[in-house]
Specification:
The complex is a heterodimer of chains A (144) and B (81).
Chain A: E1 4-5, H1 11-18, E2 25-32, E3 36-37, E4 40-49, H2 51-69, E5 73-79, E6 81-84, E7 88-96, H3 99-116, E8 119-125, E9 130-133
Chain B: E1 2-7, H1 9-15, E2 19-23, H2 30-40, E3 52-55, E4 58-60, E5 72-75
Parallel strand pairs in B: 1-5
Antiparallel strand pairs in B: 1-2, 3-4, 3-5
The chains are: A alpha+beta (144), B alpha+beta (81).
C-alpha cells in the first residue's frame, strides 16, 4: 500500500494490512475532514506534500513504532490533493499481541506525524477564501 | 554554487513559485540560505525564521553545509492529519 494517495482511503485495506494471527488487538485511527474549525465553516480541504520526504518520514515513523512497542504490524496512509468534508484524510492501523501497545503506538504515530511529516493542509472556507494551515505561524500573511 | 530550493504551501504561495534558484558560496550553510531567502523573496522575510529546511529529503539544521547539487527544500510548519 502506498503511504500517500490522491484516491479515497479504504480503511478496510489499512486494517487488512495489519491483521495477523499473531495479533490480539487491532487499532484503527481515522482523521476525517471536519465541517467547522473555531466556529468557521469549511467547504473542503487540499493537501500538499513533499512526497519523497513525506514517504520516507512515514516509513521511518512506522519502523520506530514497531521498535518501541514490539508491534505485529502498522500502516499509515495519508490523502493528498482535494478532500471533501467527511472524507478520510489519514488512516493509521496498528496491530499488537495485546491492546495497550496498539493504542499507545497509534496515538504516538498520529501525534508524531502531525509534528514532523512534510504534509500541509489548506482550508477552503465556505466564504470562498482559503488559508494554508501552519501551526505557530502568525495568521497574518497566510491567506491563500 | 547554484542551489535549487523547493517551496511548499505558504512559501510556494507567497513566493509565487515552487522552485527558487539562488547562488551561494561553496560550503554555504542552511543559515546562510535562510538569510538569502529573506533577502531575495521579501514576501517570506517575516516567516523564514519559522521554516525548517531539508537536504536530500531529511531535515537539516542551521549549521549544516549544503553539498553541491543537493536537493534542498523549504519546510513551513507542517499540518498533515
Amino acid at each position: 500500500m502506498n503511504r500517500l494517495t490522491y484516491s479515497p482511503i479504504d480503511p478496510g485495506a489499512a486494517i487488512a494490512k495489519v491483521r495477523s494471527v499473531d495479533a490480539g488487538a487491532v487499532v484503527l485511527f481515522l482523521g476525517t475532514a471536519r465541517q467547522s474549525t473555531a466556529g468557521r465553516s469549511t467547504s473542503s480541504l487540499d493537501y500538499e506534500a513533499y512526497p519523497e520526504m513525506a514517504a520516507k518520514e512515514l516509513a521511518a515513523l512506522e519502523d520506530e513504532a514497531r521498535r518501541r512497542w514490539n508491534l505485529v504490524q502498522c500502516a499509515i496512509v495519508h490523502r493528498l490533493g482535494h478532500v471533501e468534508i467527511g472524507e478520510i484524510c489519514v488512516a493509521i492501523a496498528v496491530s499488537s499481541a495485546h491492546r495497550q501497545a496498539a493504542f499507545e503506538a497509534g496515538k504516538w504515530l498520529i501525534d508524531e506525524m502531525k509534528r514532523t511529516v512534510p504534509i500541509w493542509k489548506c482550508e477552503n472556507w465556505a466564504d470562498g477564501s482559503s488559508d494554508w494551515v501552519h501551526p505557530g505561524l502568525s495568521e497574518e500573511g497566510t491567506s491563500g | 554554487m547554484i542551489v535549487r530550493v523547493r517551496l511548499f504551501a505558504i512559501a510556494r504561495h507567497l513566493a509565487e513559485r515552487g522552485l527558487w534558484e539562488t547562488t551561494l558560496p561553496d560550503q554555504a550553510t542552511i543559515a546562510a540560505l535562510r538569510r538569502q531567502l529573506e533577502r531575495e523573496i521579501p514576501a517570506l522575510a517575516g516567516l523564514a525564521n519559522r521554516f525548517r529546511f531539508a537536504i536530500d529529503a531529511r531535515y537539516a539544521g542551521d549549521c549544516e553545509q549544503i553539498p553541491p547539487g543537493a536537493d534542498v527544500a523549504c519546510i513551513p510548519p507542517v499540518s498533515g492529519g
